[in-house]
Amino acid sequence: MNKLRALVTGANGHLGSQLIRTLMERGYWVRGTTRKRPFVSCVADELVYADLLDPESLTNAAHGIDVVFHTAAPNPVKPMREKDVIDAIFVGTTNVFEAAKRCGVKTFVYTSSCGAVGMRVEKNSNHLSEADWNPKPLYPSNQGKLKAERWLVEQSLRNDIRIERLCPPLMIGPGALQSNAAMDLFIKLKKGKRVFLPYMGFSVTDVRDAAMAHVLALEKGKGGRWIIAGEYIETPELIKKIKNFGTMFKISSRLIPPWVIYGLTAIHPRLKVSAIKEVVTIRQRVSSTKAKEELGWCPRSLDETLRATLFDEV
Q1: Which of 39, 145, 284, 288 is 20 to 30 A removed from 275 (C-alpha atoms)?
Q2: Over 90: is that where the pLDDT of 54 sits?
Q3: Domain ranges, residue 25
Q4: Is residue 41 over pLDDT 90?
Q5: Per-residue pLDDT at 198
Q6: What mean pLDDT do residues 87-98 have?
Q7: Where are the alpha helices (DSSP H) in 53-164?
Q8: Looking at the domain assignment, is residue 304 inside a domain?
Q9: Cβ count within 10 A of residue 173
């Protein structure tokens, strides 16, 4: 049995909670962190309080740990200022890494994003790979992830800590302990609410597969970057697939025109047209060949992931 001691930040998050389950199934001893008190229901061996902006709490959490998985990220109920989102991601990441370094942690596994790789690739162009970087991210969370990941690249050259950086796209799947941007669509559908979508193209990864990829990066990686994306799909096809699961899921076949989405900036001043445009014009085609070949990562089919998400099948 593997007795390495792992720390997972964001234990109440969709990825964090699934990663804890995956690690424990493989024999790791796991400590999870959360800002919420009382602590959410979680299967970790130990749960502790830690705030990404409180270095002392992070140092306490990392004490006696062999590997840190940093999955925590802001999930605000109310809109945050762009600078606050970027700072929360970047400063939080630097704080977690410095705490890990102070405590003698050997491996640091970071959850970045495909948004740090790039957002748009034309249909007949080569898919984005680990060598690509988003030249000018406009969406705040993408800016924060890009800034944090580039900083970690610099740290990998200056420190003895092995750093693995994983870039998932949209993550969905069963077992979400709280709502988030990716799961909000499916939560509404399961509540019987009608949902409308704009035209987009993106890759989807099952959160269970994303968790396994993090563990495989720890077990087989040698320090580097890994894109962990499942199937690519565009909105009209996604709508058809969801409709095939039953008429109880009220998703409209009529797509939201871009001008309606841009109009949101008049209602929500903190939303920028440029950032919205980056999302609604997304055609994010990325390649996970490296993870599949070098880590042995095998993602589920999109149909299986959609079923599990809609019916909460673990």
Answers
A1: 288
A2: yes
A3: 5-178+204-230+287-299
A4: no
A5: 86
A6: 95
A7: 55-62, 82-102, 140-158
A8: no
A9: 28
| Side chain identity at residue 27, one-letter code | G
SS3 category, 310: helix
Q: Is 218 domain-assigned? A: yes
Q: Which helix (H) or strand (E) holds 235?
A: helix 235-244
Rounded-to-integer distance, Cα 99 and Cα 86, Å: 20
What tokens were used for 244? 């095939």
Task: Give the CA count within 13 Å in the CB-facing half-sphere of 40.
Answer: 17
**Could you give the CA distance from residue 23 to residue 34 in angstroms, rounded to a whole number?**
17
Strands (E), 193-298: 201-206, 224-227, 232-234
Per-residue pLDDT for 76 more than 60?
no
Please tell me whether residue 7 adopts helix, strand or coil conformation. strand
Q: Return the closest-CA partner of residue 12 out of 51, 39, 38.
A: 39
Instruction: Please give the average per-residue pLDDT across 129-140, as a whole number.
Output: 90
| Distance separating alpha carbons of residues 75 and 23, to the nearest angstrom | 23
Question: Which range (16-30, 72-86, 129-143) has the least confidence?
Answer: 72-86
Tens of pLDDT, residue by residue over 254-281, are: 998 877 776 766 665 555 656 666 666 6
In a domain, 268, yes or no: no
Beta bridge partners of 156: none
Distance CA 168, CA 150 (A): 16
The two tokens of residue 241 are 């697939």
- Looking only at the bridges linking them, the beta strands covering 232-234 and 201-206 are antiparallel
Q: What is the CATH number of the domain that holds 29?
A: 3.40.50.720
**Residue 130 domain flag:** yes
> What is the chain's percent helix, strand, coil content, to nearest 5?
40, 15, 45
- Name the domain count of the chain: 1
CB contact at 8 A, 96 and 68? yes
